[in-house]
Structure formats: C-alpha cells, structure tokens
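Follow-up to my post from last week.
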Amino acid sequence: GAVVSQHPSWVICKSGTSVKIECRSLDFQATTMFWYRQFPKQSLMLMATSNEGSKATYEQGVEKDKFLINHASLTLSTLTVTSAHPEDSSFYICSAREGQGLETQYFGPGTRLLVL
Amino acid sequence: GQNIDQPTEMTATEGAIVQINCTYQTSGFNGLFWYQQHAGEAPTFLSYNVLDGLEEKGRFSSFLSRSKGYSYLLLKELQMKDSASYLCAPMDSNYQLIWGAGTKLIIKP
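User reply:
Got it. Predicted complex:
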C-alpha cells in the first residue's frame, strides 16, 4: 500500500519558536497533500490543501501566515508553525493522494507538538 | 450543510460481529471512505464505496446506499486489536473528505 512518512513524530518547543514538519510520500507521487490538526477526542480538522507547485488553500479560520505550507515537489510537503504558542499544541497529521480526485488519501503517522 | 452522524461509542465482544452505521449529507457525492484510527495514531484506510452495495474485504465489509445517504462498516470475528475509532468520511463534489468524530469501538474479552 501507499506509504506516507512524517517527521518529526514528536516536538517539544518553547513558546515563540517556529517548528517545521515534513510529510513525504514514499512510494507514489502525491499531487495533493492535506494537513490536518486533531485535538484529543475530537474529529480531524482540515487545515489546508496543497497541490504540488501551487499555493495552498487554507480552510476558514486557519491563519496562512502562521501555518506556512510548502509543497515544492511531488513527494514532499512541509508545514511550518511560526511563532508557536501553547494553544498550537496538537496532533498534526498530513495525508497524500496521487491525484486531485477520487484517489484514496493515505495518512502519515502524525506529529505531536507540545508548546511550552 | 454537510454533516455525518455516527454513534459516539459502541461495545462488542471478542469473536462477535459489530455493525457501525453512518448517515451523511454532503454537497455532491463522490463516494465514501472508512478509516480506522487507533488511539494516539493517524487514520488508516479501510474501504471505499462509490456504488450501492456491499464491498467485502476479509473480516471487514462496507455497505453503501446512496439514495438513503447511509453506509455501514461490518466487522466480523472481532479481535482485541480492533478496538479503535472508525471514521466514516464521504467525499463531496470538490473531492474533499468530510470528517465526523467517528465511532469509538471497545472490544471486551
């Protein structure tokens, strides 16, 4: 099956610092990648959708200047949480799919971010 | 609007069968996915239905009725490792998955 990796799996940082999370599709080319956030016992919340080579589309309420997304290649997307604060502490999960339509989304293992 | 309705929690016994129901309303429809999510982990893909009927894949089967906006996931021969949340995710006309809170399934010995 399709494999998506995420790095790092855990991040603990001080308030005010920036954190970069990488998402890679290992055995397929991901035309589209998604970034989600999930708080404990809550549903997945889509933050943004990115297509390779173009700007990400952010969901309502998600600050694009705070959550910088770069999808520079067909196998790599990055999410940078700038000037992180304790309320940004969450489980960040990326997913990837091969096309822009009916293809299955495969998820990375997620990144737990704790901002002190 | 778009919404998904699944039971919040279900309990079943090891070795038994359980059916997790899902009703949905979406703007357009391009099929429905089921994902499994263990506590503290990311979701993993289980099944995809776009046509009415039952899709069987080993111990797991998924059913879809488009006219009723209804799907279910059937798990047979339950094992302890099946304890997880099960997410019903229909795809809308923009090829976006719509996510609910899922159903937490607890398996007891």
